[in-house]
Amino acid sequence: MAKGESVAGSDIPAGGFVQLLTPDGERVDTVTTADGTTYSVDFTDEEYRGLYRDLVTVRRLDSEAVALQRQGELGIWASLLGQEAAQVGSGRALRPQDMAFPTYREHGVLYCRGIDPIMPFGLFRGVDQGGWDPNEFKFNTYTIVIGSQTLHATGYAMGVTMDGKTGSADGEAVIAYFGDGATSQGEVNESFVWSGVFNAPIVFFCQNNQYAISEPLERQTRVPLYRRAGGYGFPGIRVDGNDVLATYAVTRAALDNARNGQGPTLIEAYTYRMGAHTSSDDPTRYRIASEVEAWKAKDPISRLKAFLSKQKIAKKDFFAEVDAEANKQALDLRERVLAMPDPQPVTLFDNVYPNGSPEIDAQRTAFTEYQASFEGSAH
Amino acid sequence: MITLGKALNHGLRRALEDDPKVVIMGEDVGKLGGVFRITDALQKDFGEDRVIDTPLAEAGIIGTAVGLAIRGYRPVCEIQFDGFVFPAYNQIVAQVAKMHYRSKGKVRLPIVIRIPYGGGIGAVEHHSESPEAYFAHTPGLKVVTCANPADAYTMIQQAIATDDPVVFFEPKRRYWEKGEVDLDAPLSGAFPLHSARVARPGSDATVLAYGPMVRVALDAATAAAEDGRELEVIDLRTLSPIDYPVIFESVRRTGRAVVVHEAPGNVGLGAEIAARITEECFYSLEAPVLRVTGYDIPYPAARVEEEYLPDLDRVLDAVDRSFGW
């Protein structure tokens, strides 16, 4: 796409998307959609370097997690490999007051929220089910049932409106993450209906990574996903999900529209899951190597690196320093994951209810007595 | 004297008055006041942000309630009929029930899910079911049901006030039954939400019932008294957790127990209660715990529902069988 060229539409032709950085690292100054919306970014050199650092760091942490799983230290891991730009671009587009509702793969968004990356490892190591406070971090607990969190996000966004926190530049917005497979879920479609009807301040951020475990996009839809939004009465737009700049620009604009009281937007971040669905998956059974290779050429990190080099925004020693720093963070993460204590068995019974239950109390007591009956024996 | 339905309406009104974070949401709950008029006039008095007519989507009602609760609201959701709860089942059992545990106690979801339930109103399919066991089986949910106007008024307020998620079953065929309700009574003086009630004391056998079946059990006790048998009727009120101490105390005294519910017997609450009585009161029992329940069939057509529903005669028959052991 040439500099400053228009793309055809908020109704972009199939295959088209908002792109501000080509796979070769060429910057597109602005993209204007047919409805007159212009997307661009105006980053300082420092900010460009910061985005690069984010991308490299979240990929490095992810690879450490994959290794930890392979070494038996995590029960399972859902890798974000290939989706770094979609997550960093949208994650950095959030303002501090915004609330995010992730799936179980949004480790990059979590990182961009300034959260200690170890936070979700309890879940994947099997020492807890998450265990964090969504309101403290403005980041909901990971949701594993596909699509359920989009309704939570919608309800939360309705609450933002009810609290009078929309309609101004410092209003609050909500972002709901989900994937291409989730768009087939009734609950996701209900969340589109509800957010439209209630004009909720929400951005639906769909990472279309082309596969729902083994099932390709064609099994989920016969129209480009972003076009679904039209039927619900709000704008939909497709962005190059491997382009951190475009993802940032499109998400920032949609969030600001939401906080200003203009209601929901569906963003389809067109990307690719380079790894397996999770560590339990074998993608060689359902996709061919040449497809993966083709997407490798669109890698989100190499294109930003090419841009930074060409524009002399960063030099070799910067890239080396980022790699070294990411490596250090990964090794620190590894150490802390290995040091995570297993929970005490009796904590099984904690937090079933805010106000407890005499039945649970009785079971806790019986469990404790049963455990104690082995004390001193050589079992 | 007011009806059970009106008592619920008063209770909801008082909850809306007491806490600005309470919101009512559901299908037709606004202008119409609900198909049973339980939310009558509440939207008019509290506005469309407090009493929300929702899209026709049960999963959406509960799923958005989760988000509202994370935001600090206290949603009171109406599921229009028992048989319509299943589209919301995922949100209730996988999200509402688990969020507190998942977050290690950092997220509370003070959500009330009101469900008119049970048969006896001559309705078409999906309007007469008793799905309480599905929810009582789910850790993380509390499940209660009221049987008279006074309890309805108190319990709906308690359910809204507690931070536990509560599935609140309303005996729809008793909506029009009247009783005395002290509308000015403070909640602080009331019985705990999760407590059973001895609805009629007796010494010869214990009949355990809840919701719409309490009336049936009381009528059976009146009839039995004419034959010289004093039945103790316990209104369970709370189905999860069940208030077992009250049950055990009674059964140890009477030596006989009959559990009554409309839901099918197979793997129903009666089975669990019978097992627990057997575990705890074995040496006091003069006979096995007997159950009077709906049959293990889909809820039948209206013209034969009276054959399906436990009634006075079936309860007395079970009492007779207990004594004949």
TrEMBL record, chain A:
Its cofactor is thiamine diphosphate. It comes from Actinoplanes flavus. This is Pyruvate dehydrogenase (Acetyl-transferring) E1 component subunit alpha. Residues 56-342 form the Dehydrogenase E1 component domain. Keywords: Oxidoreductase, Pyruvate, Thiamine pyrophosphate. InterPro entries: Alpha-ketoacid_DH_E1_comp, DH_E1, PdhA/BkdA, THDP-binding. CDD domains: TPP_E1_PDC_ADC_BCADC. It holds the Pfam family E1_dh.
From TrEMBL, chain B:
Keywords: Oxidoreductase, Thiamine pyrophosphate. Its cofactor is thiamine diphosphate. SUPFAM superfamilies: Thiamin diphosphate-binding fold (THDP-binding), TK C-terminal domain-like. The keyword Transcription regulation does not apply. It comes from the Bacteria. CDD domains: TPP_PYR_E1-PDHc-beta_like. Residues 2-177 form the Transketolase-like pyrimidine-binding domain. Transmembrane segments: none annotated. InterPro entries: THDP-binding (IPR029061), Transketo_C/PFOR_II (IPR009014), Transketolase-like_Pyr-bd (IPR005475), Transketolase_C (IPR033248). This is Alpha-ketoacid dehydrogenase subunit beta. It comes from Actinoplanes flavus.
